[in-house]
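Two quick folds needed for the group meeting slides. Do the first one here.
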Amino acid sequence: MKNRKSKFNRKSQSPLAKLSLFQKNDMRYSKKCPFSKKNAETIDYKNTKLLKKYLTENNKILSSKITSVSQSSQRKLAAEIKKAKILGLI
């Protein structure tokens, strides 16, 4: 029987193969919320260009862990995205 360890050897993977949105990262990001800046755009259902930045290819809302949006802004963002989806803007 062949040795199966060679098939699952992690050392042979490239360093970029380890990067993923869904894996835990050793580093902690200290990004600030983009909506809490001084001259930030307001979250509005009519601003589809802004809302599309926070959607996946399948039109699902991205997590605040990925986008570094604060909790209160994430709630507003989700509500406005849902409004835009209902009205057919997205």
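Then this one, please, same format:
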Amino acid sequence: MRWVHFASILLVSTCLIGNLGQSIQAQDDTITITVDSTNFRFDPPSVTISEGETVRFLWSGELLPHNAVDRGGAFDSGEPSRNVDYSFTFETGMNGTYEYVCEPHEDMGMVGTITVEAINITVEEPEPIVTPSSEENSPAGPLTAVLAILLTLIPVTCLALFEKYRERAQNME
């Protein structure tokens, strides 16, 4: 009887771990740049990203107001502020180098650089449509775990009830 409990726990764990692995693979394509107000610098002062990625300028509670403005006009976080949460996504075709400044502190050297690398886009022939087999088309993650629990607990419960019924029948004899 204990092996059935062990098997059900193992089955449920396997289903959940498979779902967690999928979640871990999803990555956030955002780079965050903050302010080092003690040195009037952006932190980090330069970043390298790929087209399609996002740069987020984030600071709050700064003593002095800051902003981030691209010298070429591609992005502008707005008026200088002590609290900024501004994001800009560099779309396909925006590869190159972007120099940006904090307007109130540009003369103090508060300048940053974003290098955007081109992504390699190749046009491929479409692959033929293949109907997935029943294994490939199975439900994933939590649904699988719930089904596994139900399919394991029902027979286990029936076995336990049968054992109790059989013990009572033997005791009555």
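Slide caption for protein two: The two ends are 25 Å apart (CA to CA).
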